[in-house]
Design brief:
The protein is α+β, with helices and mostly antiparallel strands. It is 34% helix and 25% strand. Strands 4, 5, 6, 12, 13, 14, 15, 16, 17 and 18 form a ten-stranded mixed sheet that branches. Strands 1, 2, 8, 9, 10, 11, 19 and 20 form an eight-stranded mixed sheet that branches. Helix 1 runs parallel beside helix 6 and helix 2 crosses helix 15. The longest helix has 22 residues. The model has no long low-confidence stretch (mean pLDDT 93).
Length: 505
């Protein structure tokens, strides 16, 4: 069978793959790039709008990014790091809009304020301390805090309306928060790539075999419509197939993936398509996860913009599954078990039984039980307006830890081979929001020639903060944020402060 060669081959049609392809095509237009996706369109799994929260994760509202230390202080390091990484994504999208490679920003991103909301004296105290710790940093200088009932009613009308149980409550707000339709963004980037002569996007294409060759990697591909096969060779291979990434690495015999396993978590949303109600809410409101729940189960009530219409989503309701993909097989998990990852899998199963039990109980919850959780956020609602929608799968990383014992990781990880000819993205949160930083990490590790000389200048034109720190260069932060918020339509409308409300009263 005749073989074709491509410089870069990417497996998976999600936001990570199209982001990496977009970066490479801008930094070196001479490189040939091929992206393969087994579905009939891009972004059918985790990147699709209904399969994720659409939150532009920046640490503004996610309380699990700011845990309490043993001494009672609030740790903000992770929130600072994630915020800076999201700013990198905003800069790249902004540049692509200005170059005409992405259309008007409202097609994929909208301004939706981000809130943290808690109840109870202890939780209010924590949120107050969190606000103090974060507000001193310019990345979070726009964050507001309030415990005033009138302010909370103004900020969060659906949450405050007809609340019969009155206990201390508090919230923080960042008005320039965002809702990102990563499915739309992925497909728009894919169309832009397909228009470029050196880029090819193959949909409905299944990877049948992966093996090393002298120059890199050789893949056998099958057209799912015609069953025709072809062989592609590449110098660099990226595996960005979401939950399918681990099985692909195992099939390729990647030594660096030995000992790795997957812990799949399913999810459901309660969704309401009343656009008037969603527009009145106009917020992403995060609270605190129940005891024993995984980080991706933090409850939140969100305004989403999907296909040009506003909707409300509440959840997610996590559950246990053996599928690695939303459209995968129940045999995915057992088929991934190997002698080299059996011990880590058993270690995690034994050490995280309360988590597994929690997920199984959540999966068996009734609709009434889920509506009862919604009522804690939104006291007044019409149950007939809310329907259950299946979310995407999340496959958390299980890997050997100290002394070879398995550990469960709740984050993302870029795995590379020793010769840097292959990279793969594993894990979940914060995921898509930090896609540009994650793919720059791939380039720095595996294609370092793309971040030197004139190509470095090109990268800094695309992402002005590249190679510099927004955490420490406050003038740069101000310039970058002003530009991105204006260009992407995220600049909020002026709002009254607590002090101004008191004076007007």
């Amino acid at each position: 069978m005749a073989k074709e060669h491509t410089d870069v081959l990417l497996i998976g049609g999600g936001v990570m793959s199209v982001t990496l392809a977009s970066l490479i095509s801008r930094l070196d237009p001479s490189r040939t790039i091929t992206l393969v996706e087994q579905a009939s369109q891009l972004a059918t799994e985790s990147s699709d709008a209904w399969n994720n929260a659409g939150t532009g994760h920046a640490g503004y509202c996610e309380l699990n990014y700011t845990p309490t230390n043993a001494d009672g202080t609030v740790s903000i390091d992770r929130a600072l790091a994630i915020n800076e990484r999201f700013e990198v994504s905003l800069q790249f999208w902004c540049s692509l809009v200005e170059k005409g490679l992405l259309p008007e920003p409202a097609r994929f991103i909208r301004n939706v304020p981000h809130f943290s909301w808690v109840q109870g004296a202890d939780h209010c105290r924590y949120l107050r301390h969190r606000h103090v710790a974060l507000q001193d940093h310019p990345l979070f200088g726009a964050m507001e805090f309030s415990e005033q009932a009138a302010t909370l009613a103004d900020w969060l009308p659906l949450i405050s309306r007809n609340r019969s149980v009155f206990e201390p409550a508090a919230a923080t707000r960042v008005a320039h928060g965002s809702d990102v339709n990563f499915g739309a963004l992925t497909r728009l980037l894919g169309r832009s790539l397909a228009r470029q002569d050196q880029c090819r996007v193959h949909l409905g294409t299944q990877v049948c075999d992966i093996r090393r060759d002298k120059a890199g990697w050789e893949l056998t591909l099958r057209d799912t419509a015609t069953s025709a096969t072809q062989v592609l060779t590449c110098s660099f291979l990226f595996v960005g197939a979401g939950g399918a990434s681990l099985p692909l690495l195992q099939r390729a015999g990647v030594r660096e993936a030995r000992g790795y396993g997957g812990f799949p978590v399913s999810g459901l949303w309660l969704a309401c398509n009343d656009d008037q109600l969603a527009s009145e809410h106009n917020a992403k409101v995060y609270s605190q996860a129940p005891v024993g729940a995984p980080p991706m189960s933090v409850p939140h009530l969100d305004t989403r913009f999907i296909d040009g219409k506003a909707a409300l989503l509440f959840g997610p309701f996590a559950g246990f599954t053996t599928r690695f993909l939303k459209h995968g097989s129940r045999l995915d998990l057992p088929a991934s078990v190997r002698p080299h990852n059996l011990r880590p899998l058993l270690d995690v199963a034994a050490g995280n039984w309360p988590l597994t039990r929690y997920l199984m109980a959540e999966a068996a919850s009734s609709r009434e039980a889920r509506l009862s959780q919604l009522k804690q956020f939104m006291p007044e609602f019409d149950p007939d307006q809310w329907q259950l929608v299946r979310a995407g799968q999340r496959v958390q990383i299980i890997k050997p830890g100290p002394k070879g014992r398995g550990t469960l990781e709740f984050g993302t990880e870029v795995l590379t081979t020793a010769d840097k000819s292959l990279a793969a993205l594993l894990g979940a949160s914060p995921g898509a929001s930090t896609c540009v930083s994650a793919m720059l990490e791939v380039i720095e590790k595996c294609l370092p020639e793309l971040v030197t000389g004139k190509r470095l200048q090109t990268l800094q034109e695309l992402i002005p903060s590249y190679g510099r720190s927004l955490q420490h260069d406050h003038r740069l932060l101000a310039d970058v944020r002003r530009h991105t918020l204006t260009t992407l339509g995220l600049a909020p409308k002026p709002q009254h402060t607590d002090a101004e409300r008191s004076l007007s009263a």
